[in-house]
Amino acid sequence: MKTKKLINAGDNAVDEMLEGILCAHPDHLYAVDGMPRAIVARHGPRQGKVGLVIGGGSGHEPTFLGFVGKGLADAAAVGNVFASPPPDPIIACATAANGGAGVLFMYGNYAGDVMNFDMAAEMLAMDDIEVRTVLTTDDIASAPRSQRDKRRGVAGNVFIFKAAGAACDLGYSLDEVERVARHANTRTYTMGVALSPCSLPQTLKPNFAIGEGEMEIGMGIHGEPGVARGALESADQVADTLLYRILSEMQADAGDRVAVLVNSLGSTPLMELYILMRRVSQRLDAAGLAIHTSLVGNYCTSLEMAGASITLMHLDDELQRLIDHPCDCAMFKAR
Amino acid sequence: MKTKKLINAGDNAVDEMLEGILCAHPDHLYAVDGMPRAIVARHGPRQGKVGLVIGGGSGHEPTFLGFVGKGLADAAAVGNVFASPPPDPIIACATAANGGAGVLFMYGNYAGDVMNFDMAAEMLAMDDIEVRTVLTTDDIASAPRSQRDKRRGVAGNVFIFKAAGAACDLGYSLDEVERVARHANTRTYTMGVALSPCSLPQTLKPNFAIGEGEMEIGMGIHGEPGVARGALESADQVADTLLYRILSEMQADAGDRVAVLVNSLGSTPLMELYILMRRVSQRLDAAGLAIHTSLVGNYCTSLEMAGASITLMHLDDELQRLIDHPCDCAMFKAR
């Protein structure tokens, strides 16, 4: 049975999506000339500002493109569905984002992305554009705590990119932006649950199998295996399971503040996300933690996968200020 | 086979969702004391301003709650899933929204909503609160053109509410707000396509059946029958079908401006919506129409239904100004 999608030829889906994005958001975004997979913020890059370049595979919209805009990322390099962009659009993004103060690459920790962004960074060095890299590793289900640098980057990207983008916009130096980005990543924790697979536009076939009435805790955003598969539990039980792991790692003190993201993997509707949010709020209350800000919705998706993830960013004064900094992106506005 | 949902008891889904919404957005929203289904904008109602009250069944989030906020609606009355709110929360909303200049009720044209909102209006009249009502009827598939007042209100609500809410915020009189709201409704046209059913939290069973590889053009947001069922077509063909009907009714002249909404019915991801948006843009270009603004995403959903709708609002100078007016809602920000 083929998944039904409103697409034309599967191979054209990414490029046609990008055309649609530029039609819808011409005031926010443009593509580099001759490089349709390099999308730049119209009011992002400026002289003397560190440039922030993000990117990765398609299929996670509004990640990454949706977070390109004034106050957040300057450009995003766009790959095929669930596949890294090659070096060329990354280089084009960095060149467009460069304001003479260096460029920070930020993206989820996946082997293909690391290879291509590193290759781009080497080539940019030859053009005297200084590039630093901070990988996001917020998915706590993807490797043990002792191997944080092996973990994948998932929905927590939103907060991590946001903090770094705000630092860029505030005129921080490349050293300082890099420090903030690493700090933001270290204090961001995500864990998800998947209820159904998604399918790629080229195949229209489910990317994994899961039984009726089953869920998988900790599954990755490309269907990478999680940590436990079992019978679907109630929203409260699922939220408790995810938060138990997150709070154990976070080791916050009563009175600490967090930013919360309850994210749909694609087809899980707002009603279910807010039911999860209710339980998150109850658990945080019980732990004496204050919710400074919260996002609920589709922020980092896996096409039409059903499921959700919960992210906490453990705020301090600096991160709180950066998370509160205004941004104006095509698919995300804050303040 | 039961639909998998991240909920607790199905009967509690709406109330638990509302609790989650208030936890997530305490700066934007509150519930009237003792009336958890009456949700009010914290910075909405003010003395001398016409109050705008919207509402309807749950399951369409972010419609209606998400459009409650400064510059848009002052309050929303919340019903059970796909069911009208009873008069009590509507009355509570109107009382909270009342600034002494009258209250406008706006909601989609469904029999249950009409009955309950009308009953509320009668009771408010006894308290000397003047209420007017404008029904939205943007779903052009739901009745012939000669019976516009029989049509249902669907995703075009976003633009229609937005225009009326801006008029309220700008201090228009009740007469003028009512005129603007009717005018906005008259110039807004929506048509959708459904690819899969959704299921209610209480039953977890699909609300209609549709074959593998089939789509239904013109289906309503509660699964009301559409105008044609057939084999799934390409995104471009579907967009052409929907736009052909919309543009035939709209009868715009070259040079006219439109606001565009490409809306997911729930599980259809941004990738597909932007592929539709690309074609919408091509067709509008060909017709000589300019896109003044566009929204692409989940604005009026049917839980996890797959499918999409296209809305055009035929702008004039007044509507354009109102659509551009800033608003700050929990789930929708403009400017």
UniProtKB/TrEMBL annotation, chains A, B:
Molecular function GO labels: ATP binding; glycerone kinase activity
GO CC, one annotated term: cytosol
Keywords tagged on the record: ATP-binding, Kinase, Nucleotide-binding, Plasmid, Transferase
Stored InterPro entries: DhaK_dom (IPR004006), Dihydroxyacetone_Kinase (IPR050861)
Keyword Nucleotide-binding attached: yes
Domain DhaK: 9-332
GO terms for biological process, alphabetical: glycerol catabolic process
Protein's name according to its UniProt entry: Glycerone kinase
